[in-house]
Amino acid sequence: xxxxxxxxxxxxxxxxxxxxxxxxxxxxxxxxxxxxxxxxxxxxxxxxxxxxxxxxxxxxxxxxxxxxxxxxxxxxxxxxxxxxxxxxxxxxxxxxxxxxxxxxxxxxxxxxxxxxxxxxxxxxxxxxxxxxxxxxxxxxxxxxxxxxxxxxxxxxxxxxxxxxxxxxxxxxxxxxxxxxxxxxxxxxxxxxxxxxxxxxxxxxxxxxxxxxxxxxxxxxxx
Amino acid sequence: xxxxxxxxxxxxxxxxxxxxxxxxxxxxxxxxxxxxxxxxxxxxxxxxxxxxxxxxxxxxxxxxxxxxxxxxxxxxxx
Lengths: 222, 78
What we know:
- The complex is a heterodimer.
- Chain A is mostly helical.
- Helix content of chain A is 65%, strand content 0%.
- Chain A has helices spanning 3-24, 28-49, 53-70, 80-98, 149-161, 164-175, 180-187, 191-221.
- In chain A, α5 (149-161) crosses α8, α6 crosses α8 and α7 crosses α8 (191-221).
- Chain B is elongated.
- By secondary structure, chain B is mainly alpha-helical.
- Chain B is 77% helix and 0% strand.
- Chain B has one domain: Orthogonal Bundle (Arc Repressor Mutant, subunit A).
- At the A-B interface, α2, α3, α5, α6 and α8 of A face α1, α3 and α4 of B.
């Protein structure tokens, strides 16, 4: 596994201890901060198993209530977050079964996972001087420190267009900051599969940004 | 390693899952190829931009309900 994952894990342990102590002591601001910090990705994970946003929200709510109830019994065999997500996945699955929406993750929006990251036409062909080399380098993107409202919309739109499996993986990794290991555990997929979905999803978002930047610079040139 | 291969390997590279010799060839390619170096920088930038998008959040009423439940649990004798 990557070195960063191990580092995260080591610091998680210390943070976890402190978090757990604060929660058990009834620290309301600590509870509010983990609810605010984790619920976004919990909603995304729940949405894999249930049919509507409001079901997902209920699943997340039930999960937090179960967490409150179980705080004193929790023995810390896993990290706090792993424990919370395990409860979440179980709640979401049984809710999904009740809703008769037993959709295996593998069958969600599949079909385009092995498309190339970049249009093949942008590379030289077998008869060219450098087969597989760029015909023309990608254009440089303008340097911009902050995410403008427009770019924000481009990224959001790009994420919306991704097939569900890619969208969930990209959101959990790049938006919510979970590790590769966590995401493959949560979605019950292999790390290889996780990487393929991440790769495809990021490539698509990059292509959207590239189109946005090239049309923006064409606009300026006009 | 061709440019067309580089763009498919970039995620393995960034994830740190590449074998050492492949990683060396990948990095060597980036040194020699401005197009791929730029592409990898754009993927990194893409990842940063995705990270700046708003996360989903609970509705305020659900959030309040949970904070109340925690406060109740915490109340002595409750």
